[in-house]
Design a protein that fits this description.
Mean pLDDT of chain A: 87
Radius of gyration of chain A: 24 Å
Strand order of the largest sheet of chain B: 4-3-5-6-7-8
Low-confidence stretches of chain A: 372-379
CATH architecture of one domain in chain A: 2-Layer Sandwich
Shape of chain A: globular
Helix content of chain A: 25-40%
CATH architecture of the largest domain in chain B: 3-Layer(aba) Sandwich
Number of strands of chain A: 23
Distance between the termini of chain B: 52 Å
Number of domains of chain B: 2
Strand order of the largest sheet of chain A: 5-4-6-7-8-9
Oligomer: heterodimer
Distance between the termini of chain A: 51 Å
CATH class of one domain in chain A: Alpha Beta
Number of helices of chain B: 13
Helix content of chain B: 25-40%
């Protein structure tokens, strides 16, 4: 791990050299020796790890896909093969001389091996019954702490702030990244566990009790939480900053959130986004700005980002749209090479110093089509048309009169062979012309997704909130695919 | 840890002297000076902190109840009155003036020690949770308490653990987390059934080959009893660490048998008693030997639950806490509402030889003592005793009790689900007879489905299951 101050001022050329050096060492000393999956794969493909001279050579390595690592009922232990951990055979092979040393060699070897021992783990957030575990060694916890420090540094949070963490508690990255960030930056905090754990009312009480300056939320729940707070006439005037994480932030939402904060007594709240994934074991901060998007600052000493053509897998150039491919650098525990995230960065990767803050670390465009939270059906054929369901998010979130919404896909008569139906449930503000709104939304859905809605059904807010699982699920169920399979 | 090595071997007399000293300092320098609530009370009652000498003077100090601390409808920040104020600038300046001729000059309190760091909720069943503030200083003490608890339990970095205590911002979960990370053992911070659900927890336990599970007793038992149903094994399991909820010694035997029945070897069941207001949890070396306290952090007294008399060694009574070394939210003679059935003892532990005071027996809930009117007049009904019996019953999977009133007579309705394969009819009859005889109350026993009961008691919904329902007010 490099010093962040130094790293964020380093010219890109030096950063690249650093990455080349780190990648060489990581491939030869960790991946090839200690990662069962990759050492087998490299041997099978007859790839010499010593030939990987730098990050350009990454393109000669195979991709890793989600299904390579996700456990199945037949192979529940699959993910263990991605864990960097020297076993007894290896320690014996490479250190039996050291073990024989008279000056406590054996204990030293044991300590070295202990350094690799996983002590903490997160799961991926899929809907499947088989979530993939990602393990952290003690050393990795220092990495996630450092990443947390960098997040807060970019967001200009200091030890005078008070942070309320409203991510739902789970062995997931979002909650723990926030926790470790607070620990490293030494910021006063309240890790509430979210509305599901402490209840929305108690969480509001905690806001008024603590008077925090920073709040951390999942976007969907935040919107609901703030609207409830407005209804109850709460005072959140202490809030200066708000971070989102856990899922994509639809552009229209930021404005709605700021507006709600004004009603709660907080003027000019800075709304910030993070991008993270369980597989990378950290999250990255978006450069703070009120109206421009400067992208997410990456940590080049911890990972390598590539952007590739999603169809061909060929690398694309700087600033060009492509799928994000992630490679771990200098991690223990679970580590992946060339992991296909399935996330599309519209503005690609940028290596120029940030025009906003001047940091020189690479940046990934703010406009990321995150598929990860609904990978299973992000591109779905409905009524024979390939529909990008992601498009519902910006569309519905930017409707000023819509309080909550949900999309449900069904089959007519629940018959798997019958026609697809797509329903939109909406809860709207009072005294809204429903017919006009319905016509407007119907037209916009047709424009953005190229399907026409079967029906728009109006529902009262509390009912829809319940249907969304806002206070019971880890993430609200925005898009439901209830089509029976044959 | 160095301190612990010393403290856990000190003779009782030395511990008392140390506590005298700490208490005197705490009252004089903290409660009287920096504690908004007690400062007022001291003034009101004319208590002179200068004349306070130590443990013998404790009865001069007022008792505190949870209601005194809870947020008010019109004042959410009322609990702030229990938070120590940092030293004022004047005080800091005055300490810096002048110099010391001999030795190190007394610098005075460090304002950093008083700076708010994190907030936990006290896990109550009250309408509003009680916020308990921790400073860095407190967090370090809690981590130390965690180390001590692991030392007493005999857990090391070679143990793989699943921390299945329900996640909530409280000391139960976090002390466990800091302990596992602190010693560097492999651990899944599962967050309990409410977060992951039983199946995922059991699957993780199986995959990780976990040797230790930390969970609420009811949840641990339920997990072992449903292991088979989900098709997982527990052959690596060696130890259950139970806490958070009522964990009677007698239930540990049933748990050991359950562990045996699912193929676990070298079975051990150990208990921890956590207390939110104490800001730490205390562990027991073996069931029945008592929870080993940290006499340098918190002073524990045992009081008559209905009065203010301090009880003698080994007498059953209410646990009352006074902070001896804490910042943030601090309490003086705080009535926890927990009853220690074996009271407090100060002689060394016959099992592990540590000399710290121990809380003996089971920790019962005061709110589970009811005054009922049965067929033959008034009856003192201790629902804790009923819980103890039901938990120790190997045939009962899940259950709850309702206290109801009909025509001026109180009765119990027990609803249960038997362990699969057992004769539920016979169990129903046995329970009816046993319970009505023991408690001298009219009893009806009904069967219900697993889902219905799990839902009712909030098995995967609440921090701890709720099995006693008083329906008389409805």
């Amino acid at each position: 791990m490099e010093n962040w101050e130094k790293l964020s001022k380093m010219p890109y050329k030096e950063i690249k050299e650093l990455q080349d050096r780190k990648l060489r060492a990581f491939m030869a000393n960790q991946i090839y020796l200690y990662s069962p999956y990759y050492s087998n794969l490299l041997q099978e493909l007859k790839i010499d790890p010593l030939k990987v001279k730098g990050i350009e050579d990454l393109r000669h390595l195979p991709f890793t896909y989600k299904w390579d690592i996700a456990p199945t009922d037949e192979e529940p232990q699959k993910a263990k093969d991605f864990v960097i951990r020297p076993d007894e055979e290896i320690t014996e092979k490479y250190s039996h001389l050291a073990k024989m040393s008279m000056t406590g060699g054996k204990a030293q070897v044991e300590e070295k091996v202990y350094d690799f021992k996983p002590v903490h783990l997160h799961f991926t957030t899929g809907r499947t019954a088989n979530p993939t575990p990602f393990l952290y060694s003690k050393r990795d916890l220092d990495n996630i702490r450092e990443a947390g420090y960098r997040l807060l540094d970019v967001f200009e949070v200091t030890s005078d702030d008070i942070v309320v963490n409203c991510f739902p508690f789970a062995p997931h990255l979002a909650f723990w990244q926030t926790f470790f960030a607070g620990e490293q930056m030494d910021v006063a905090n309240f890790h509430s566990g979210g509305g599901k754990i402490v209840g929305t009312k108690n969480l509001m009480d905690a806001f008024e009790y603590l008077r925090p300056t920073v709040a951390v939320f999942i976007p969907g729940y935040c919107y609901y939480f703030l609207r409830e707070a407005v209804k109850q006439g709460r005072d959140f005037s202490s809030i200066k900053k708000l971070f989102f994480g856990g899922e994509r932030v639809p552009p229209g939402l930021k404005d709605k959130i700021k507006e709600l904060f004004v009603q709660l007594g907080a003027e000019d709240v800075m709304v910030l986004a993070t991008y993270g994934m369980t597989e990378a074991k950290v999250a990255w901060p978006e450069c703070p700005s009120h109206d421009e998007y400067y992208g997410y600052h990456l940590f080049p000493d911890m990972e390598v980002f590539e952007t590739v053509d999603p169809e061909t897998g060929e690398p694309v150039g700087e600033g060009e749209e492509g799928e994000i491919v992630y490679t771990s650098l200098d991690w223990r525990g679970t580590a992946v090479l060339r992991y296909r995230t399935g996330d599309i960065a519209k503005g690609g990767l940028m290596y120029e110093p940030c025009p906003n803050c001047g940091r020189t670390v690479p940046r990934i465009s703010s406009n990321i089509q995150r598929k990860s939270e609904m990978k299973e059906f992000s591109m779905t054929k409905v009524k024979g048309t390939l529909v990008n369901l992601n498009n519902f998010f910006p569309l519905m979130m930017s409707q000023p009169d819509v309080e909550e919404w949900q999309v449900e896909m069904r089959k007519r008569n629940d018959d798997p062979y019958d026609l697809d139906e797509i329903y939109l449930y909406v809860a709207v503000k009072e005294d809204v012309d429903r017919e006009k709104l319905a016509a407007d939304v119907r037209q916009k859905v047709l424009r953005d997704t190229e399907v026409s809605l079967t029906d728009i059904i109006f529902k009262p807010v509390p009912e829809l909130v319940k249907q969304l699982g806002m206070e019971t699920e880890l993430k609200e169920k925005r898009i439901l695919d209830n089509r029976p399979t044959d | 840890m160095e301190v612990w090595k010393k403290v856990s071997r000190m003779p009782a007399k030395a511990i008392r002297n140390m506590q005298d000293d700490l208490l005197q300092k705490m009252v004089k320098n903290e409660f009287a000076k920096r504690h908004p609530y007690y400062r007022e009370i001291f003034k009101e009652k004319g208590i002179d902190p200068e004349s306070f000498r130590g443990l013998d003077d404790l009865n001069k100090l007022p008792l505190t109840k949870k209601e005194d601390m809870l947020p008010r409808e019109d004042d959410l920040r009322h609990p702030k009155k229990f938070v120590l104020e940092p030293p004022s600038e004047e005080e800091q300046k005055s300490k810096k003036k002048g110099f010391a001729l001999f030795g190190k000059k007394e610098e005075g309190p460090d304002p950093k020690d008083y700076k708010f760091h994190t907030l936990y909720f006290s896990a109550g069943r009250t309408a509003r949770p009680l916020p308990v503030e921790y400073t860095h200083y407190d967090l370090n003490n809690m981590k130390e308490a965690g180390f001590r608890a692991f030392d007493i339990l005999g857990l090391t970095r070679d143990d793989t653990m699943v921390n299945a205590f329900t996640y909530a911002p409280n000391v139960y979960f976090w002390q466990m987390f800091y302990s596992t990370v602190g010693i560097g053992s492999t651990a899944l911070q599962a967050g309990g059934g409410k977060v992951l659900g039983m199946e995922k927890i059991l699957k993780a336990m199986d995959n990780m080959e976990a040797e230790v599970i930390a969970a609420a007793p009811g949840y641990a038992m339920f997990a072992l009893q449903t292991l088979d149903f989900f098709g997982f094994s527990a052959e690596n399991l060696q130890r259950l660490v139970i806490g958070i909820d009522y964990a009677p010694v007698s239930a540990t035997e049933k748990m050991k048998k359950l562990m045996e029945s699912v193929g676990a070897k070298d079975n051990k069941v150990q208990r921890i008693y956590f207390n939110s207001e104490a800001k730490c949890g205390w562990a027991e070396c073996e069931p029945g030997y008592g929870y080993h306290l940290n006499p340098d952090h918190v002073l524990v007294e045992i009081l008559d639950p209905d009065g203010e008399t301090v009880l003698g060694e080994g007498e059953k009574g209410e646990v009352v806490l006074t902070h001896l070394d804490a910042k943030g939210t601090t309490v003086l003679r705080y009535r926890t509402g927990d009853i220690a059935t074996g009271g407090l003892v100060t002689e060394p532990c016959p099992n592990c030889k540590r000399t710290v005071p121990r809380l003996m027996g089971d920790i019962e809930r005061k709110s589970h003592y009811y005054k009922l009117s049965g067929n033959e007049g008034p009856v003192d009904f201790n629902a804790n005793e009923l819980r103890r019996r039901m938990m120790a019953n190997a045939d009962v999977l899940l259950w709850y009790v309702e206290i109801n009133r009909q025509n001026g007579t109180d009765g119990l309705k027990i609803v249960f689900k038997g362990v699969s394969g057992r004769d539920e009819e016979a169990l129903q009859k046995n329970l009816e007879q046993e319970i009505s005889e023991t408690f001298n109350l009219p009893v009806t026993v009904e069967k219900n489905t697993l889902d219905a009961i799990a839902n009712k008691i909030g098995l995967e919904k609440y921090i701890t299951e709720e099995v006693v329902f008083d329906t008389r007010q409805e």
